[in-house]
């Protein structure tokens, strides 16, 4: 399929009719660049392509939160007459029945009172084709199946979500379904259920039973619709929840940058300063008190040692002198005894001499000057000091000084922390924003929970209704399936359904291997760290995707940078697109926004030119820099510029070419292009 031309009439910012030529000029120039500032209508171009192809059945458009009618109404240019409305027209070529044909789909819509009417008309090779028009939703499935549309037409800003492997699972599942035509199998299965049910219904004989059954079927249908609504509500709630979470993250970041953490902890910080100051004062008082005790004596320790030595010597000398007095008297008595016992004169004289000499020696002392004359209690106090009390005091004082220093430094820290608390009016706004965001998050979470519960309940009710119908039918049918034909159809339908289920499983199994290989190949081509991923595994039952790094561990995309995640998502899409075997144009809206220089070059060199035979790149002017063009140069067919014109209050479409070394008419002089 090749898009040739898109015509927008009063769609979004395009007031009046605008033609955008999309066909590449040659097969080796597949890239068409559509550039424009934000708000110039790039996304509108992507949406218009999808709208033209799929109408109300457009898969997963991000701006389509509300109903289709509301969406169409919003798309009518605000300066146009709503009664005349708007139109998109897409011309493309595609192979059909073995030959190329040109198709043109035109969708118009306009307001009638408060409703929106819309029509579609499809022509083939220049002539309106009524059959094709009437069954367009089926035809488009054979040309560009909705199941794979996401792989070819996507918004670069949003694909990053697919790097979340949970989200990717859904993508892989729809893609596998789409690729293999399994959605057709699914629909067939559903249709068979309907056929079976209808036959059984017809076989119900009694009027009463018929009525009862019809009532139950109506209940079933209603519960189906409720289930779908509930699922949509869950989707919406999930989106809101994500949005609320992002706002919380943003406000928390801003608050942190403004010192909000300290602000919110201000009372605690002030308490801490209070405590630190108290502790400082306490240790200071303790030290002062200690210094009023034995402390100062530490300065006199050598003097005390000398004093004690002197006092001890003085005491020993005095003791000796006192002893000499006592000995003189006893010696006299002993000499008297010796004389009465008639001990010889010689001996007595010798003893008397010895005594006299000993006493004289004691009395004369060691010549120590009596300077201190210290009291015995005082001496023993001084001796205790030296024996350990001074050492203990020294240790105690050392500890007190240390404690004081520690208390002082933590008091200073606490003081600084308090001084750094931002003033209330500086952070008030951020604090309020953060608190509001937190409560919005809590509410969004509660709503999401409620929506999820609602959806579970709706699913349960639908299941019950389903069983009721089934049960009732079987009851009513048990004896009544008389018609041979009806019975045969019911039986065959059941058997066919089982066969289809088996077919689906087998086909999926076989094709997942191929898809794994193709995804791995695009990952390795695109991701910067060549060996980052060694293996891709897809669980054929759950469609769960697992990426294994070179050391065999599963890759957690959360650990990649935003740019890498975006490339990962592009690789997934590219791999799946190749696996689809479909030859469809690729349209990417704003693909480079989040990429750094290296990643940009990867995407530009290795992906864009090879993505398909027609690659329409919608990007902001700032993305298409001259170095981008240098890399893309030879593969670019032409450039289109979308520019909002204040005069006409409309976006205008300008077309330019560059190639063959010369700039053709209508080229954009402000962009310099080097040939490579
Ligand atoms: N019905 C409308 N009438 C006029 N302008 C519209 C209408 N709907 C959207 N716009 C404008 O179109 C612009 C959005 O276009 P969009 O395709 O998102 O641009 P881009 O993708 O280039 O940023 C916005 O400026 C918006 O105001
Ligand atoms: Mg956009």
From TrEMBL:
One GO term of the biological process aspect: double-strand break repair
Q: Which residues form a coiled coil?
A: 220-286
- Where, by residue number, does the polypeptide cross the bilayer? none
Q: Where is the Rad50/SbcC-type AAA domain?
A: 6-196
Q: Does the keyword Cytoplasm apply?
A: no
Q: Which UniProt keywords apply?
A: Coiled coil
Q: Which InterPro entries match?
A: DNA_S_DndD, P-loop_NTPase, Rad50/SbcC_AAA
Q: Under the GO molecular function aspect, what terms does this record hold?
A: ATP hydrolysis activity
- The keyword Magnesium belongs to this UniProt entry's keyword annotation: no
Q: Which family does it belong to?
A: Belongs to the SMC family. SbcC subfamily.
Q: Quaternary arrangement and interactors, per the entry? A: Heterodimer of SbcC and SbcD.
Write down what this protein is called: Nuclease SbcCD subunit C
Say which species the protein is native to.
Answer: Nonomuraea turkmeniaca
């Amino acid at each position: 399929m090749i898009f040739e031309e898109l015509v927008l009439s009063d769609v979004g910012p395009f007031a009046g009719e605008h033609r955008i030529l999309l066909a590449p000029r040659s097969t080796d120039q597949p890239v068409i660049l559509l550039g424009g500032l934000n708000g110039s209508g790039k996304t509108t171009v992507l949406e218009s392509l999808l709208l033209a192809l799929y109408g109300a059945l457009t898969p997963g458009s991000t701006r389509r939160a509300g109903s289709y009618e509301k969406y169409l109404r919003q798309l009518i240019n605000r300066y146009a007459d709503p009664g005349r409305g708007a139109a998109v027209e897409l011309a493309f070529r595609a192979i059909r029945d073995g030959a190329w044909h040109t198709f043109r789909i035109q969708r118009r819509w306009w307001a009638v009172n408060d409703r929106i009417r819309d029509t579609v008309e499809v022509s083939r090779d220049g002539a309106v084709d009524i059959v094709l028009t009437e069954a367009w939703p089926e035809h488009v499935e054979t040309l560009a199946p909705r199941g794979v549309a996401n792989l070819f037409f996507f918004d670069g800003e949003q694909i990053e979500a697919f790097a979340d492997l949970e989200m990717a699972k859904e993508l892989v599942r729809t893609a596998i379904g789409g690729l293999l035509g399994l959605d057709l199998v699914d629909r067939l299965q559903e249709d068979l259920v309907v056929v079976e049910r209808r036959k059984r219904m017809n076989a119900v004989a009694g009027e009463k039973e018929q009525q009862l059954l019809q009532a139950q079927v109506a209940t079933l249908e209603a519960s189906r619709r409720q289930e779908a609504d509930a699922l949509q509500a869950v989707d919406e709630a999930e989106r809101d929840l994500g949005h609320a979470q992002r706002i919380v993250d943003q406000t928390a970041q801003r608050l942190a940058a403004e010192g909000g953490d300290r602000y919110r902890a201000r009372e605690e910080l002030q308490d801490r300063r209070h405590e630190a100051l108290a502790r400082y004062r306490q240790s200071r008082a303790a030290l002062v008190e200690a210094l009023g005790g034995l402390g100062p004596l530490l300065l006199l320790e050598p003097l005390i040692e000398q004093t004690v030595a002197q006092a001890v010597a003085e005491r020993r000398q005095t003791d000796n002198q006192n002893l000499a007095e006592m000995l003189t008297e006893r010696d006299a008595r002993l000499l008297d005894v010796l004389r009465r016992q008639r001990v010889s004169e010689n001996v007595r004289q010798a003893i008397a001499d010895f005594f006299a000499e000993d006493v004289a020696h004691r009395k004369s002392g060691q010549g120590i000057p009596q300077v201190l004359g210290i009291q015995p209690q005082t001496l023993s106090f001084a001796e205790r000091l030296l024996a350990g009390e001074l050492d203990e005091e020294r240790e105690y004082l050392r500890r007190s000084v240390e404690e004081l220093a520690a208390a002082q430094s933590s008091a200073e820290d606490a003081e600084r922390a308090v001084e750094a608390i931002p003033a209330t009016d500086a952070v008030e706004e951020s604090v309020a924003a953060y608190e509001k965001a937190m409560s919005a998050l809590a509410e969004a979470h509660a709503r999401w929970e409620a929506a999820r519960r609602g959806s579970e309940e709706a699913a349960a009710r639908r299941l019950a209704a389903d069983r009721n119908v089934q049960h009732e039918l079987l009851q009513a049918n048990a004896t009544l399936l008389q018609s041979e034909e009806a019975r045969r159809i019911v039986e065959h339908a059941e058997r066919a359904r089982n066969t289809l289920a088996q077919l689906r499983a087998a086909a999926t199994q076989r094709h997942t291997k191929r898809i794994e290989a193709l995804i791995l190949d695009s990952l390795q081509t695109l991701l910067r760290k060549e060996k980052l991923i060694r293996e891709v595994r897809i669980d054929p039952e759950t469609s769960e995707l697992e990426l294994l790094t070179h050391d065999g561990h599963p890759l957690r995309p959360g650990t990649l940078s935003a740019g890498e995640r975006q490339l990962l998502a592009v690789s997934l899409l590219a791999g799946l697109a190749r696996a689809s075997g479909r030859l469809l144009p690729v349209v990417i809206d704003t693909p480079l926004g989040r990429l750094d220089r290296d990643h940009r070059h990867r995407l530009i060199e290795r992906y864009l030119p090879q993505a398909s035979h027609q690659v329409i790149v919608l990007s902001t002017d700032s993305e298409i820099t001259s170095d981008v063009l240098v890399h893309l140069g030879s593969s670019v067919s032409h450039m289109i510029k979308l520019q909002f014109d204040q005069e006409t209050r409309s976006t205008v479409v300008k077309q330019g070419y560059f190639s063959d070394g010369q700039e053709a008419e209508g080229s954009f002089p402000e962009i310099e292009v080097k040939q490579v």
